[in-house]
Design brief:
By secondary structure, the protein is α/β, with parallel strands linked by helices. Helices cover 48% and strands 14% of the residues.
Length: 406
């Protein structure tokens, strides 16, 4: 029996989901688990970037987020431009038709209100704006749950993002930095809560305890890093600097007799893995990843984690591994500070390989202390998310009992 034929509430999940980004899909896993646990018979419906993958994973209806993607094929040149333009005209109507089928729509986590990576206004910001606007027209409530935000300098992107935020019925942020950023952009956030990232609700797979990991192995999370939305003019320079430092650090680990396991967080990161494997000889492992649970399962094989992507860092912390962040945005530093590891951070844009070795050495020296602190803070994060889920569950029940809000 397919879930959408059930008798529970009709809940739509919206976002850049099923497209190969493990962090986004991990946030979705957490929300789907919550919905199915607390609302048996819930009828799920997705509007996302990877509808085929999401449909197969959750046995539920799924619609493409953008009309253009499944119709693009091998379109190039003017034909591709024409198809994209047609898609932008059709997408508001497609979104409205999808929204009308729902009683509640949830945007599960993700950095949907930020531009810490290169972002075009006519991509997801445009889609999110039309979601919230059409939901208002259809009388359907939209919840932005534990989302990330940053101050956006590009005028059109900022306008779309802030309008979408204002039109949502519920907002919560994954850290104070995100809520402050939205406030700075002119949105009243006085009623908005701050809760941990949704990935903290995921179950950590059984694996080897910290002392039994593979002979001092180190996990290195890599990223196809090219700077942020304001760094397009020096993207190649930033990428090369980051890659040289990362290869140097991996070479240091191998020369020190440490096995290395490479992690990714998005399909876009695969070329970085290939570059390291081609440049550094030694005991280096890289295996495909399909989910954040899969990532944490592989992390159980290492003693220490050094990572760039936000959710690679988060999973290292959640798995109880001493973790060092080479961050691409302030959200990495905020997360590390909240977990008691604020001194073990660097910025990908200014990465210093020598300092990285020093931080890594100090982190390992303080292993026992770090593991104890992480256990305490992971427990606290789960408790905070349980509080939010309880409030969401109550709100969903209220809306579905009385019908759509007007």
């Amino acid at each position: 029996m397919t879930p959408w034929r059930g008798v529970g509430p009709k809940v739509g999940l919206f976002g850049i989901l099923g497209s190969g980004n493990l962090g986004n899909d991990g946030s979705l896993d957490a929300v789907v688990t919550f919905l199915r646990d607390r609302h048996p018979g819930v009828r799920l419906d997705f509007m996302c970037m990877g509808p085929d993958r999401v449909r197969a994973r959750y046995s539920a209806q799924a619609t493409a987020l953008q009309w253009y993607e499944p119709h693009a094929g091998n379109a190039t040149g003017l034909w591709a431009v024409a198809l994209k333009a047609l898609g932008k005209l059709l997408d508001p109507f497609r979104t409205f038709a999808w929204v009308r089928r729902q009683e509640v729509v949830i945007v599960p986590g993700m950095g949907v209100l930020e531009a810490t990576l290169p972002l075009r206004p006519w991509a997801f910001p445009y889609s999110l704006f039309w979601l919230t606007l059409t939901a208002r027209l259809a009388g359907v409530r939209v919840a932005l749950v534990s989302v990330g935000s940053s101050v956006i300098s590009k005028r059109l992107t900022r306008w779309l993002v802030t309008r979408a935020a204002r039109l949502a019925h519920y907002r919560s942020f994954r850290d104070e930095l995100s809520r402050d950023a939205m406030r700075e952009m002119g949105v009243d956030t006085s009623a908005d809560g701050v809760y941990p990232d949704l990935a903290f609700a995921l179950e950590v797979p059984d694996g080897k305890p910290p002392g039994d990991a593979v002979a001092g192995a180190v996990g290195v999370g890599v990223m196809a890093y090219y700077g942020g939305n304001d760094d397009r003019h020096r993207a190649d320079e930033l990428h090369e600097r980051y890659l040289v430092a990362l290869k140097g650090f991996v070479r240091y680990l191998v020369d020190s007799g440490r096995p290395v396991r490479l992690f990714t967080g998005d399909v876009a990161d695969d070329p970085v893995v290939d570059e390291i494997l081609a440049s550094v000889e030694g005991d280096i492992t890289a295996e495909p990843l399909t989910s954040l649970q899969d990532l944490m399962r592989q992390m159980s094989e290492v003693d220490t984690v050094v990572a760039t992507r936000y959710h690679n860092v988060l999973c290292g912390l959640l798995a109880g591994k001493p973790t060092l962040s080479i961050g691409y945005a302030a959200k990495n530093d905020v997360l590390m500070e909240a977990m008691g590891l604020g001194e073990f951070c660097q910025q990908a844009a200014t990465i210093d390989a020598a300092r990285l070795v020093e931080q890594f050495t100090e982190l390992e020296r303080r292993r026992d202390e770090v593991v104890r602190v992480l256990a305490e803070r992971n427990h606290a994060a789960r408790d905070r998310l349980d509080t939010q889920f309880a409030a969401l569950s109550k709100a969903i029940s209220a809306v579905t009992c009385v019908g759509r809000a007007t």
